[in-house]
Amino acid sequence: MSGAELEQDATNATSTAAGAATDPRREPYDLGLDQLFEVLQNQRRRYVLQYLHDNEGGTSLSDLSEQIAAWENDKEIRRISSSERKRVYVALYQCHLPKMDDMGVVEFEQARGTIEAGEHIQLCYSYLDVHENSDERRRRYYAALAVVAAAGLLIGTGVQTVLSIPAISVGTGMAVLAFAMTSVWSYRLRTSDDD
User: Fold this and answer.
1) Distance spanning both ends of the chain, measured CA to CA
2) Do 112 and 35 belong together in one domain?
3) Do 114 and 154 sit in the same domain of this protein?
4) For the chain, which terminus, N or C, has the lower number of CB atoms within 10 Å?
5) CA angle 135, 173, 189 (to 5 degrees)
6) What residue numbers bound the domain in which 81 lies?
7) What's the rounded Cα separation, in Å, for the pair 18 and 37?
């Protein structure tokens, strides 16, 4: 092969590899376990999955980067700085979204800056707790635990004065009951998600 032919082959290979992510006729990517965990190992990619799950129908890169910056910095969206947003935007644009697009997890159109769920996103969801907003679930869990503990304290104080049973015994019993109830509740939620 001549030098010109080698150069042409290299150019064709590069353009083919670069166009694979944007070609709608590309063959489906077989997402193996290693590739799946490669997607899930990064917190920003998990945030992308969470955001797409919560906002069905796709989103813009701008909206996505603002929300992820807010989550990462534990701030409201309106309080994030432009540098915080830009740092996330650049990382998503250059690294995370193209990789997720190549694997078929998302469909990322760089020119338009739009992101939609890909063919393999459901497989990723099966490994994440995205069936319900996990923060909301955690809040309800701890609120229920606090209510049961407070009820135990009130009942324990009242029982001690009426029946002369030490409050520590009643409090301990109520705490054990509270943890048992929340464990059963958590187990039922988990098994209902598996159905």
Assistant:
1) 59
2) yes
3) no
4) C
5) 30
6) 27-125
7) 23
The CA angle 192-136-47, to the nearest 5 degrees, is 90
Domain-located, residue 54:
yes
Number of domains in the chain: 2
Measured from the Cβ of residue 83, the count of other Cβ atoms closer than 10 Å reads 9
Q: Are residues 35 and 75 in the same domain?
A: yes
Sequence letter at residue 122: Q
Same domain, 99 and 138: no
Token readout for 18 is 């670069």
Strand ranges for 23-65 from DSSP E: 59-60
Round to whole Å and give the CA distance between 72 and 16. 36
Question: Locate tokens 């082959």: which residue?
Answer: 9
Q: Are 106 and 100 in contact (CB under 8 A)?
A: yes
Residue with tokens 């376990």: 33
How are strands ordered across the β-sheet holding 114-117?
Answer: 59-60, 114-117, 106-109
- pLDDT, residue 19, reads 44
What is this structure's pTM? Answer: 0.55
